[in-house]
Specification:
Elements lengths: L1 H15 L8 H18 L5 E2 L2 E2 L3 H20 L3
Antiparallel strand pairs: 1-2
């Protein structure tokens, strides 16, 4: 079940962005998804990580913007 969510997330990204063929998108996605999973699990014991407050929508919005920035950088830097 979890792998299916990851596969759907990868397909979503592929539809939204045109990735350079030399980038290992499944590996990059694995690292991003694992980081998100870690943060979600960590919120069970602490609401903050590196000064980001995950008990507020603003904290999660910061993470969303960071992921968008990372993906856009991968797409734009194709060499």
């Amino acid at each position: 079940m979890r792998d299916q969510v990851a596969i759907e997330s990868l397909e979503f990204l592929k539809q939204k962005y045109s990735f350079p063929p030399d980038k290992d998108i499944p590996a990059i996605s694995t690292v991003l998804i694992a980081g998100i999973v870690y943060l979600v699990m960590r919120t069970k014991v602490s609401n903050t990580f590196l000064g980001i407050d995950f008990s507020s929508s603003a904290g999660w919005q910061r993470i969303e913007r960071a992921i968008t920035s990372l993906v856009q950088t991968i797409v734009e830097n194709d060499g």
